[in-house]
């Protein structure tokens, strides 16, 4: 395991310079100051403009009031030269752009403005200087304020202020950047350099990163260095563990195989024990009947002996007792034959399961033998097993594996397929499949299916069905080895394949296919299978 320090850095040094923290901080700070400066300059310009305009109006109005009477006398006396001279006098003011006079009788004096500009001019009324006419209006004076002059004055003032602000911001940026670089930038650069150290985790530097610094940056550097040291220690432990990992895995795997084999053996012995108990229970009936028949024969013989000793035996009594003994012997023969069949099936199944030897056997017959040993268990349930067997071939294989497959599949269907149900059936089918290979040679395989029509298996569990120790009955008697044993028997002993398909609420179907080596049946084998 190798962890490189610089491999974890997302940026190169050039990119880090372009996006450095100090650069970003200065840009954000100056940007904020610039926005505030623009707002401030806008407000200052508006206030300055209003103040300058008001001041221009006051100056113009004061000057006009000083020349009002001369204007009124000049207009009253129709003295055009004096009026134009007064107009030029007002126009000499710096803030005045244009002045003109309008009268109702003698016309206009000066060059009047037109349009919107005329509406913005200051307007003053001129009255008659005669006391007789009682201040009658004789005209109006229009004064147009020079906005360009005011704008020039404002631009000069605001321009000076803006220049001062820009100089201030530049000096402030230099000072802030210097302080930021000294307190934060250089320490962070030192930390980045530490992180860029080649093989940082494998061989971390020993010297303290920021000795004597006790602020937040110092705490961060100390914490980072401590974290690297811990990672270094963890890496050493991992490397030490990896050196022995393969041996440990091999040892643990061997132990797991031994445990699994022991569990499988225990499961097989448990199944065989249940088989013994079932067969023993099933033998009680024929053996009991045989015992009762033997007792009957004993009673008959005792009765006949007594009659003979007493010389009172009649022909009718003899015939009756002989007929009775004959019927009882028939009962004994049938019951003991039933017991012999049970013991024979049990013996063959038990031997096959324990010996794991390869031998010739009829495939369908081994299925029927296995189901015969399962009858004691099936009788206790409301479920039935339907057979559709068409693989009546003698094959050279492992009968114990086939028998255990049938037992596990049937028991799995009873335990899981019909959970919570009170009726149902299990269908076992067998078929012979022949496929043609090259040069006309045929390949024979046997396909066996076990189907139930129960609750089905959820899709999420289908891929786990054949995993060891997987069970939905954990803690309720399920070991999780039934289907794992089936998978092992099919793939290893029979050299075949096993698959499962299921639909919730419709049931589950297991399909087993394996190559069959067909052998010729001998007369002895045929006779044994018939009996």
Automatic annotation (TrEMBL):
Keywords: Kinase, Membrane, Phosphoprotein, Transferase, Transmembrane, Transmembrane helix. It comes from the Bacteria. The keyword Cytoplasm does not apply. SUPFAM superfamilies: ATPase domain of HSP90 chaperone/DNA topoisomerase II/histidine kinase, Homodimeric domain of signal transducing histidine kinase. Its EC number is 2.7.13.3. Residues 278-518 form the Histidine kinase domain. GO terms for molecular function: kinase activity. It catalyses: ATP + protein L-histidine = ADP + protein N-phospho-L-histidine. The chain crosses the membrane at residues 25-45, 154-180. The keyword Metal-binding does not apply. It is an enzyme of class 2 (transferase). PANTHER family: PTHR43065:SF47, SENSOR HISTIDINE KINASE. This is histidine kinase.
